[in-house]
Amino acid sequence: MTGELASASARRVASYLKTSHGATRVLLFGSALAGKFSPGHSDIDLYFEGVPYERELAVTGMTFCAFPDLELDLFPAGHATRELSCEVQLAGVAL
User: Fold this and answer.
1) What is the pLDDT of residues 70-79, one digit of tens each?
2) Angstrom distance (rounded) from CA 22 to CA 39
3) Which helix (H) or strand (E) holds 54?
4) Residue 26 is inside which H or E element, if any?
């Protein structure tokens, strides 16, 4: 998967999180955004907001199941560290 394909896949996952689970904001960050994506060595890092805290982990699991072909690393806002949240807010790109 190239960086361009990783970005397209990230947009598909973002759309799923928004339409199926009510996420209000999904941000791409990490290697797929920095142009350093390497198939087999990288994953697609996504941070999402707007899902109720008590549903975030279930939604994360359902998303992994919905996209078994993708190497995803998902970070729900309510379960992310303050440091990660700040980093993503500064460097991430909304999808």
Assistant:
1) 999 999 999 9
2) 30
3) helix 53-66
4) strand 25-29
Structural contact between residues 10 and 28, judged by C-beta atoms closer than 8 angstroms: yes
Interatomic CA distance for residues 51 and 95, integer angstroms: 16
Distances (CA, A) of 76 to 3, 40, 92: 23, 24, 14
Q: What is the pLDDT of residues 7-35, one digit of tens each?
A: 889 999 999 999 999 999 999 998 887 67
Residue type at 81 in one-letter notation: T
* Domains defined along the chain, listed by start: 3-94 (3.30.460.10)
Beta carbons within 10 angstroms of residue 39's beta carbon? 11
| Confidence (pTM) | 0.91
